[in-house]
Design brief:
mainly alpha; Serine Threonine Protein Phosphatase 5, Tetratricopeptide repeat; 114 residues
Length: 114
Amino acid sequence: MIALDPNNDLAWHVLGRWYLALAEVGAVKRALAQVAYGKVPNAKYEDAVGCFEKAIALNPNRLMHYIELGRTYAQMDRDADARKFITTGLAMPETEKDDPETKNLGRQILKKLR
């Protein structure tokens, strides 16, 4: 999708979630997946951060971009950054169908931060 439209914020969001999911895969699961499926692409949390930042730059009105960026920072133990972006997302109005669920996820993550 990004190759077709590099200005699509949702495509950047999906790519960020993909990077986040891959970054969370541990060494054992990665080795097992490599045996079963072949090489698993390397991904770092920083890859996800870049995608979510790009999604925000393209469309700063989607709260899910902020909460997912905050969730990524939480995984990186960057609690202050996580709080900042999740709080921003929680303060935004709900305009999309999944916004209440996304906000609930954000609240759960905030409770776990130090």
